């Protein structure tokens, strides 16, 4: 039986199970982990948890596993999986525990005062102390930051709740007094003594005056208990088991209505949305399991996303609220729709929910695609005016007061007969319990009377949406006549009469089935089967957070009157706010003591970290200027992912880890500093100088969490100059672009000025190309001037030109005005430019102007003169000496500076000046058109150039080949993306070593978007309009090509708006068109851009998007789902639809096996097994059998038949077959296990299984089973040395096999075609039996059959058999040709066992053809490779051949050891394949080592006996030849001939083979 768990985080962490305290582990980190998971509710990535709690060099994942194991022992002890974890994520399932934090979840401080008194008292009673007061973990920086943040937030809510209670309970002093005492203890500095005395006296008087009644226990010191928000257990009622599963398939969430009432809503199913308006008596949890409502939820969740909610006073929503007006109920519906984020849906009104639905539809016709009404009315029972009905209802009301929620048979029978007269006992009990759980008697009465008087019948004429009205003809709650009248009053409404007496249709009655059919058809038609995806307004962003604590001179400030103090502080805060805004930031909060600002969110900012640091230092300077009353500032910065979303008042808020970390850091600083985390330092790059912060300055933080003191902003005229100090990658490619620039420079040198635009996407290397060019020009040949725009330059005028002039005159940013003026005057004097240019130039440089009339000139005129002066000065320089002026990043240039450059470009042809301008494609260059500029478009690197850069970044380690391919694929030749992606892989531990010499460290599942790339994409993304953003976000969840029709449907934009948005995305170079006819397809230009756009979407919205995508793809590919199973599997997994994901993964894996993509198949199969084991999936064991059987087949190819993983897969399948009693698939598991035993050198075990299998299937008529039975025997017998038996089994299989019928066996049992295999083994056995012609025919047939199927493994096997046949025949050239074909296939399709076999055969052929050294080395390496696959069958023979080659090479000692090892291995495994040949080789090696004639003959006779026993005619002949040679050496030629004579017939068949020639020597 499931236990009830209660977790409390207010005070010390405590856990109770069924009311009893649970002893927790002593590990504080484990307890902290539990608290964090409980409060956060969402899935947490293992990497994040490791970083949060165990960011240490040893084994953080091991520590996390240990902690999770301890928590599982507590939380999952009763068999219910509350704590779920897989290899990626961990989650404490929502709703599986009662948590005190839920009392205040989502509650803002401003909303506390509007809560009901009961809710406030529950909150007050829940606080036993500060948030997690016993879990201070100073070495876990991220956790501590989170804990402090939550502690601060909850403390504020607690104080607000206490104050609200005290004020509200003024007339009940005995209830107010405990809260006042608590408030005083929390705020000891606030003197509440007088208030306590006053209320204490009033409480005493009130208690004294109150009459004493029995049962009164409350007194002045009593405290109200917290009202549990979790459902109460049934009282004295044992409910029958429900046919429904747990509530894990619905998501219950909460939203605050406009008056603060908390409304609970639930989401289930997937597809187009149906929203069910609230009705009388609902309870989201209880209805989910109820036989009264459960089938409704199932039916409406099938193919649809069903949204239900408990109305106020009902179920899980607040049961105490003041406003129960009709408008309040409509407002609740509006809030739920808004919270879910629905744009268009079908609205279902049941009973009293009909009136709510009608009113909502009239208010929001654009959202309601169709109105569906069941048993509804728009006039309440009193408003209908039927006297008899009124009398009956009043009587029911009287009974309700006495019998509501009680086990009163009379009331229950009356009430049940009214709503579900057809109910059975089980349904009656559930309905009775629904009364108890849903409404209190008082609330039931209130609601009954509220809806008695409603009448919105006159509003029906304003209803103009498709409407379907259904009504039961025997309904006693809502008269049939009301439903009929309702349909007649709505224009175009359709009415359906259902035959039932039940107000709530029951599952077993036909009327319910008809209702679901009608409702589903109507909803699909109304929505036009269009999946409208909810738009989640929240986004994820990369941002830097600045938190600054202001320090004041307390004696000075305390001595000032409050108004005077404010007069000092307010201007300071205004100036600080201006500093934030000038640097592109957003002030989140600002007060007398603290400033919190965000850079990069909500407004995108590519250089957010550097600009945040610049702001921090500027704020510090501002504080120093007020040193008479301020002592300093303690500022902290952190960078990372934040969530940007709207608040209830539509303003944007920024939340997330960096906010908490920066806040905690600033508070923990012991003195005035500006500090940054390592993340901020990395993001700021070369723009900011920082020094490692000494550990003692921040003792509360762990030493391994490095912090840095921000010292200064590094000055540069452009972003490139600031980056160039770091180590640069080698310059790659761009020869053509350099040639164009060189041509322009030669034209300039000849007196013709040029303007050249260098245009390219971010990261393509615009700065690198231009600086490589400019850097190659000798300084003596030209005046080189370089400057660039920054993101913040758009906020003021002449910024870029000012930096240009400062460069020209050698003036620093912080130069004192007198010194700067002196430098300008000196330059004028030296160069001799017109003095009239001085004043405007001084104005551009923001220096004092000498002309007294300058101030009275209009602003427009001043701007004109400043532009002309700047242009005139630059033209003057160009006439004196060639000038190269490089201005970068014009997409950020201010308009005044742009105006100067436009005028300059137009005048350039007259002077020797090369103006090089860089910009992104979106920059509007039309203003320069009159100047006729050249334009260089930078393309992405081609494959060769990208590979060259990767050589430098990563290195050429062969193990990196796959990763290099993935990186190259993702980055599509973008240099910056390549550099940043490699850096991110190194930082996350996926690469280890040094740049250019990296080694892989673990698997890389996908290329992760680095923070810098995410920032670039964010900035570009924010330039798009709302529709384009919507289309891009929906498109981002798809991998590869995206059908435009599907994208159009999912975005639900009007056609013209969608087309415009798609066009904008193409112009922005985010999407590219793949195909227009017959179907249009697009894809993202870069995988990383797609990932970055997807990375902006919050997790919950991603899940919904994937659900919608899955529904649309299934409709789009309805006739070819299998063809697109990989895509469907991905979306199902991301949508957390585990059943569908598993099904599509299995289909995809089987497809991959058929096309010999075994590694891909294993990835899909392993993922499927993981999902089956980690999630609640129906028939998981049965499905896992299919996965394990398929894994076994894929592993045979990908690892080799003898790999241990093959055995593990089939053993697991066998175990599961036994568990569920699946005899049919047990055969397949046994067959797979037998195949493993055969190849791994365990023939006895294989033979036992083969016999067992044969016995099981002997009476089966399935030819496939008969073939596979023979298959087991021909393979096993062959390697046992029983070649005659092997040939018999193989020949029988040839007779049974039909290629059209039986090729499917390839993918079911052993990964290769049995028809090919039996021909190979029949051919090899025939050769050994002395039938060479038949042997050749069988092997040729094998190659032909394999070629027909074009199945790689079968084809490689056919070449394997053919190569062996030629090796038997002593034909090295033919053996080598077949082996090379085998090797080519095996390497291409990654078949390791056959790679090893082919490599040995190649080595043998090379050796026999005279390439002895390479041949020997190849054979040696191949034997090791074969052993690595676990295969040992046939290995003794190969080792024997290797020993023979060693002996012939004169390495007799090694040869002897090798042949002994071969014989020992054969004896150990019991495998005697070619044993006679190995014994012959042993005798030959012994003879070369000096063995005597008698000894050699004895060894050869032993070999001959084995050949005879094995019925190997070729073996007998070969050994006879060796014995004859021994006799001939003795001079006994006649006896030698007599020894060969019996083999005459075979010798004749062998033609000119090696064995034939050797035998003919004696005739």
Automatic annotation (TrEMBL):
GO terms for molecular function: adenylate cyclase activity; ATP binding; DNA binding. Residues 544-666 form the Guanylate cyclase domain. Pfam families: AAA_16 (PF13191), Abhydrolase_1 (PF00561). The keyword ATP-binding applies. It comes from the Bacteria. Residues 210-250 are annotated as: Disordered. This is Putative ATPase. It comes from Mesorhizobium tianshanense. The lineage of its organism: Bacteria, Pseudomonadati, Pseudomonadota, Alphaproteobacteria, Hyphomicrobiales.
């Amino acid at each position: 039986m499931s236990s009830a768990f209660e977790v409390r985080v207010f005070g010390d962490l405590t856990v109770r199970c069924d009311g009893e305290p649970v002893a927790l582990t002593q590990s504080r980190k484990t307890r902290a982990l539990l608290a964090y998971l409980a409060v956060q509710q969402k899935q947490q990535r293992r990497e994040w948890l490791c970083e949060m709690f165990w960011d240490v060099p040893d084994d953080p994942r091991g520590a996390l596993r240990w902690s999770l194991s301890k928590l599982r022992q507590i939380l999952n002890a009763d068999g219910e999986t509350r704590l779920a974890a897989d290899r990626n994520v961990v989650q404490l399932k929502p709703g599986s525990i009662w948590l005190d934090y839920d009392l205040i979840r989502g509650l803002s401080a401003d909303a506390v005062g509007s809560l009901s008194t009961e809710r406030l008292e529950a909150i007050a009673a829940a606080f036993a102390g500060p948030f997690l007061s016993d879990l201070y973990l100073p070495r876990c920086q991220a956790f501590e930051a989170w804990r402090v943040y939550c502690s601060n937030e909850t403390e504020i809510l607690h104080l607000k709740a206490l104050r609200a209670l005290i004020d509200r309970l003024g007339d009940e002093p005995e209830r107010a007094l405990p809260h006042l005492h608590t408030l005083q203890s929390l705020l000891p500095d606030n003197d509440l003594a007088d208030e306590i005395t006053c209320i204490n006296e009033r409480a005493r008087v009130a208690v004294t005056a109150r009459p004493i009644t029995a049962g009164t226990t409350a007194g002045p010191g009593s405290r109200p208990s917290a009202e549990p928000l979790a459902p109460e257990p049934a009282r004295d009622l044992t409910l029958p088991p429900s046919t429904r599963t747990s509530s894990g398939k619905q998501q219950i969430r909460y939203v605050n209505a406009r008056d603060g009432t908390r409304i609970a809503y639930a989401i289930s199913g997937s597809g187009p949305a149906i929203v069910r308006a609230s009705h009388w008596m609902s309870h989201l949890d209880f209805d989910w399991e109820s036989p009264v409502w459960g089938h409704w939820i199932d039916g409406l969740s099938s193919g649809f996303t069903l949204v239900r909610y408990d109305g106020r006073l009902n179920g899980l929503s607040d049961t105490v609220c003041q406003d129960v007006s009709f408008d309040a109920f409509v407002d609740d519906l509006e809030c739920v729709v808004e919270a879910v984020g629905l744009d268009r849906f079908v609205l279902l009104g049941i009973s009293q929910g009909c009136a709510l639905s009608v009113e909502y539809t009239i208010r929001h016709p654009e959202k309601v695609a169709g109105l569906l009404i069941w048993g509804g009315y728009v006039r309440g029972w009193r408003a209908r005016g039927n006297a008899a009905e009124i009398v009956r209802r009043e009587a029911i009301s009287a009974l309700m007061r006495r019998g509501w929620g009680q086990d009163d048979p009379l009331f229950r029978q009356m009430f049940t007969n009214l709503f579900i007269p057809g109910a059975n006992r089980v349904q009656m009990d559930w309905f009775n319990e629904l009364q108890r759980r849903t409404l209190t008697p008082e609330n039931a009465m209130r609601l009954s009377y509220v809806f008695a008087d409603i009448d919105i019948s006159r509003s029906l004429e304003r209803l103009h949406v498709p409407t379907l009205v259904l009504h039961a003809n025997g309904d006693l709650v809502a008269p049939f006549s009301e439903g009929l009248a309702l349909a007649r009053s709505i224009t175009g409404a359709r009415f359906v009469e259902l035959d039932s007496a039940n107000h709530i249709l029951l599952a077993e009655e036909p009327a319910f089935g008809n209702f679901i059919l009608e409702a589903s058809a109507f909803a699909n038609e109304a929505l036009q089967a269009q999946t409208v995806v909810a738009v989640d307004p929240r986004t994820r962003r990369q941002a830097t957070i600045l938190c600054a604590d202001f320090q004041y001179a307390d004696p000075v400030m305390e001595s000032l009157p409050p108004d005077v103090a404010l007069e000092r502080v307010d201007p300071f805060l205004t100036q600080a706010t201006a500093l934030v805004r000038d640097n592109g930031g957003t002030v989140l909060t600002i007060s007398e003591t603290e400033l919190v600002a965000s850079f990069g969110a909500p407004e995108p900012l590519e250089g957010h970290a550097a600009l945040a640091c610049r702001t921090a230092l500027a704020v510090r300077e501002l504080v120093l200027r007020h040193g008479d009353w301020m002592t300093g500032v303690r500022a902290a910065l952190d960078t990372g992912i934040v969530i940007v979303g709207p608040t209830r008042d539509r303003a944007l808020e920024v939340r997330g880890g960096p906010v908490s970390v920066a806040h905690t850091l600033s508070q923990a600083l012991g003195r005035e500093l500006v500090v940054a985390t390592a993340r901020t330092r990395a993001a700021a790059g070369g723009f900011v100088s920082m020094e490692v912060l000494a550990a003692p300055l921040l003792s509360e933080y762990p030493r391994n969490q490095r912090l840095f003191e921000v010292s200064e902003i590094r000055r540069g005229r452009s972003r490139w100059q600031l980056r160039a100090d770091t180590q640069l990658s080698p310059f790659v490619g761009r020869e053509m672009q350099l040639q164009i620039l060189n041509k322009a420079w030669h034209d300039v040198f000849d007196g013709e000025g040029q303007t050249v635009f260098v245009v390219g996407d971010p990261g393509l290397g615009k700065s690198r190309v231009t600086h490589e060019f400019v850097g190659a020009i000798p300084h003596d040949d030209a005046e080189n001037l370089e400057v660039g725009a920054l993101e913040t330059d758009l906020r003021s005028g002449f910024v870029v030109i000012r930096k240009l002039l400062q460069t020209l005159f050698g003036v620093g940013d912080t130069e004192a005005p007198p010194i700067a003026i002196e430098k300008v005057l000196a330059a004028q004097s030296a160069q001799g430019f017109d003095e009239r240019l001085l004043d405007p130039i001084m104005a551009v440089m923001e220096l004092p102007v000498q002309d007294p009339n300058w101030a009275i000139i209009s602003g427009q005129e001043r701007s004109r003169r400043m532009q002309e002066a700047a242009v005139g000065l630059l033209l003057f320089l160009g006439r004196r000496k060639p000038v190269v002026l490089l201005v970068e990043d014009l997409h950020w240039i201010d308009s005044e500076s742009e105006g100067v450059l436009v005028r300059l470009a137009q005048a350039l042809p007259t002077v020797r000046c090369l103006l090089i301008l860089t910009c992104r494609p979106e920059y509007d260059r039309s203003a320069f058109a009159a100047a006729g500029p050249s334009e260089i478009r930078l393309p992405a690197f081609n494959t060769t150039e990208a590979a060259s850069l990767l050589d430098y970044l990563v290195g050429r380690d062969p193990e990196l080949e796959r990763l290099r391919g993935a990186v190259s694929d993702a980055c599509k030749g973008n240099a910056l993306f390549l550099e940043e992606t490699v850096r991110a892989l190194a930082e996350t531990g996926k690469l280890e070593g040094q740049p250019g010499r990296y080694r892989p460290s673990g698997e890389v599942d996908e290329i992760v978007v680095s923070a810098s790339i995410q920032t670039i994409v964010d900035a570009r993304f924010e330039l798009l309009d709302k529709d384009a953003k919507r289309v891009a976000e929906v498109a981002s969840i798809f991998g590869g090509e995206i059908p435009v029709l599907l994208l159009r449907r999912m975005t639900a934009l009007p056609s013209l708006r969608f087309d415009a948005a798609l066009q904008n995305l193409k112009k922005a170079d985010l999407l590219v068109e793949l195909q227009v006819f017959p179907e249009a397809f697009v894809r993202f230009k870069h995988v990383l851009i797609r990932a970055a756009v997807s990375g902006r979407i919050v997790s919950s919205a991603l899940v919904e998007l994937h659900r919608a995508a899955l529904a649309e793809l299934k409709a789009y590919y309805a006739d070819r789902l299998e063809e697109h199973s990989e895509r469907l599997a991905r979306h199902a997994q991301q949508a957390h639809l585990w059943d569908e994901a598993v099904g599509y993964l299995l289909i995809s894996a089987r497809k991959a096996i058929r096309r010999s993509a075994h590694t891909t198949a294993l990835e899909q199969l392993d993922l499927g097994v993981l999902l089956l084991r980690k999630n609640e999936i129906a028939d998981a064991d049965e499905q896992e059998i299919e996965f394990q059987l398929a894994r076994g087949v894929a592993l045979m190819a990908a690892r080799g038949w003898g790999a241990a993983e093959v055995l593990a897969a089939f053993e697991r399948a066998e175990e599961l077959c036994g568990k569920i009693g699946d005899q049919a698939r047990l055969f397949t598991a046994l067959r797979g296990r037998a195949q493993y035993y055969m190849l791994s050198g365990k023939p006895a075990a294989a033979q036992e299984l083969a016999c067992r299998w044969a016995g099981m299937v002997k009476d089966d008529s399935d030819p496939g089973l008969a073939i596979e039975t023979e298959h087991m025997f021909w393979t096993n017998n062959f390697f046992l040395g029983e070649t005659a038996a092997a040939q018999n089994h193989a020949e029988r299989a040839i007779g049974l096999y039909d290629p059209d019928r039986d090729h499917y066996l390839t993918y079911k049992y052993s990964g290769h075609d049995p028809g090919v295999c039996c021909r190979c083994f029949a051919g090899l056995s025939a050769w050994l039996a002395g039938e060479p012609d038949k042997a050749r025919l069988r092997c040729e047939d094998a190659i032909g059959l394999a070629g027909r199927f074009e199945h790689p493994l079968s084809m490689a096997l056919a070449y394997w058999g053919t190569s062996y046949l030629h090796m038997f025949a002593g034909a090295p050239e033919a053996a080598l040709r077949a082996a090379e074909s085998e090797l080519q296939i095996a390497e291409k399709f990654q078949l390791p066992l056959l790679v090893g076999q082919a490599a040995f055969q190649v080595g043998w052929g090379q050796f026999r053809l005279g390439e002895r050294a390479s041949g020997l080395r190849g054979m040696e390496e191949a034997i090791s490779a074969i052993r690595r696959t676990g295969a040992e069958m046939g290995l003794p023979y190969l080792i024997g051949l290797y020993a023979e080659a060693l002996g012939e090479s004169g390495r007799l000692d090694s040869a002897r050891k090798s042949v002994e090892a071969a014989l020992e291995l054969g004896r150990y495994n019991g495998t005697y394949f070619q044993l006679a040949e190995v014994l012959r080789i042993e005798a030959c090696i012994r003879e070369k080592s000096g063995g005597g004639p008698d000894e050699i003959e004895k060894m050869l006779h032993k070999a001959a006996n084995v050949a005879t026993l094995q019925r190997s005619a070729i073996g007998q002949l070969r050994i006879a030849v060796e014995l004859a040679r021994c006799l001939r050496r003795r001079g006994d030629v006649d006896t030698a001939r007599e020894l060969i004579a019996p083999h005459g017939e075979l010798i004749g068949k062998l033609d000119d083979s090696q064995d034939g020639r050797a035998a003919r020597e004696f005739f």
